[in-house]
Every structure is written in C-alpha cells, then in structure tokens.
Amino acid sequence: MPVQIRPATPADIPEMLALIRELAEYEREPQAATATAEDLMRDGFTEPRRFHCLMAESDGEVAGFALYFYNYSTWRGHAGIYLEDLFVRPVHRGKKIGKALLSAVAAIAVEEGCPRFEWAVLDWNQPAIDFYQSLSAEALTEWTVMRVSGEALAALADAAPRFLPPQSETSSNT
Fold first, then answer.
1. Angle between the N-to-C axes of helices 37-45 and 13-26, in degrees from 0 to 180, rounded to the nearest 10
2. What is the pTM assigned to this prediction?
3. Active-site entry in 26, 72, 82, 132
4. How far is CA 163 from CA 153, 160, 166, 167, in A?
5. 49-95, pLDDT tens digit by residue?
6. Longest CA–CA separation in the chain, Å
7. What is the predicted pLDDT for the residue at 166?
8. Is 26 a catalytic residue?
9. Exposure of 102 by Cβ count < 10 A (0-12 exposed, 13-18 middle, 19+ buried)?
10. Least buried of 7, 48, 69, 81, by fewest C-beta within 10 Å?
11. Residue 87 phi, psi (nearest 5)
C-alpha cells in the first residue's frame, strides 16, 4: 500500500505524542519530551495555531509525522516554513516516507509563496544529513543556533524594559 500523507486532526494527538517521545528517545533526550495532549490541542488545533502537522500512514498504520510552523524573513519580506520535527518509525524506514513528508511540506511552502523551507539536524545524525543532502538541502555551517530556556529565559525576561504604548498622532510635545 502506498504511503498516504494527510493533515493531522485532534484524533491524532495520542499518535503525535507517541511519535514525539520516540523521536526524543532517538535523539537521546527522552526526559526532554514533556509535551501533553492539552499542549498539542491548544497550539495545533485552536486559534491562533502555533504549528501544523502532517501524518504519514503506511500499511494502515501511522508511520511518521512532520511538524512545522511559519517563520518570517525580514530580508526576503516573506514567511517561510520551519520544520520542527520529522520522524519516521524505524519499521517504516526505507519506504520513502521521510521524502514524502518533506515533499508535502515543500509543496505547501511553494503553494503559499514561501521562499524557503528550513530545519535543523543534529551534527551526529549522519544518516539524516546524508538523506537531506540527497534532496539538495544545504547545510548552513556559518550559522550557530542559539537558545535561552528555563531559568536563563526567565532572567532575561525580567531584564526587559516596560513597553510603552505608541504615541498618539494627535499628541504634541509642547
């Protein structure tokens, strides 16, 4: 049976959570996957949507998923797509499911006028790097991903100045 790609629905949340945990295990950080069904429902299936997800099915079962969201390029003046997670269960690998998922997200990017489609890959994941390069993906080696989280994020937020409301055009500085 050929692979089928479809948008995720709220009924897919249990499988999405299972795939997220399987991916975290593969990436050697199972304790980091703390998302809940409530989180996925809130952020993926109610407005404003924070992410979109495609599900891949093969032989009548969920084989993998691609979770993505929109970013924005100030230089290009257009939204792009960022692939947060791509995962295909080991039993389904080698069936071109990963390529089908990536192609489906690329088709969405093209259809919506997004000039780029980006994602990150762990530097030790050579099979994934080789796969992505076989699809003409380029490694942007001149960029370093930066992250602030946990207590450091809270401390940085505490240092934020108070936001002032925009000045009214009718006010004067006399």
1. 110
2. 0.89
3. 132
4. 18, 8, 9, 12
5. 999 999 999 989 999 999 999 999 999 999 999 999 999 999 999 99
6. 75
7. 74
8. no
9. buried
10. 48
11. -150, 135
Query: Which pair of tokens denotes residue 100?
Result: 């089908």
SS3 string, the chain, reads: CCCEEEECCHHHHHHHHHHHHHHHHHCCCHHHCCCCHHHHHHHHHCCCCCCEEEEEEECCEEEEEEEEEEEEECCCCEEEEEEEEEEECHHHCCCCHHHHHHHHHHHHHHHCCCCCEEECCCCCCHHHHHHHHHCCCCCCCCCCCCCCCHHHHHHHHHCCCCCCCCCCCCCCCC
The two tokens of residue 1 are 């049976």
Adjacent-strand bridge partners of 71: 80
Buried b / exposed e along 35-62 (16+ C-beta atoms within 10 A): eeeeebeeebbeeeeebbbbbbbbeeeb
What are the tokens at 157?
């937020």
Q: What is the Rg, in whole angstroms, of the alpha carbon atoms belonging to the chain?
A: 19
Which amino acid is present at 60? G
> What pLDDT was estimated at residue 173?
54
